[in-house]
Amino acid sequence: MKLIGSLIEQNARAIMAITHDSLFKGHNPRLFNVLKTLFPELKTVYFLAHTPEQGEDIYVLLVDATHVVSVELDRYDENVEPIVRIRSLKEYKRKLSKTKQIELAVAMDLSQKDLSSSSS
Predict the structure, then answer these.
(1) What residues does each domain of the chain span?
(2) Edge-first strand listing for the sheet containing 83-88
(3) Which superkingdom heads the taxonomic lineage of this protein's source (predicted)?
């Protein structure tokens, strides 16, 4: 999908930048540790969705522009093992709404910029 600088893209980009920085600055160490365990060479992560439920938080994240990872973390008991599902981009894209497709394209763009700047 080609990005055109729409309001949806601008809003998604702003929110993703904030949540990305927050994760890497240690504001959600439990989630970050789960991701580092799954992806020891982790370079970049962008939030595609966050669903706070009664007893858990469910995150959907784009990791290193290659995987979409769903992580469910118990809110009250850190000893409960997180529930993790790793999907390919192709699998994740299948049933996305137009808005979610735009958000994924923005996350891909941000991830690719991060990855190209870290390899320089």
Answers:
(1) 7-118
(2) 45-52, 56-63, 67-74, 83-88
(3) Bacteria
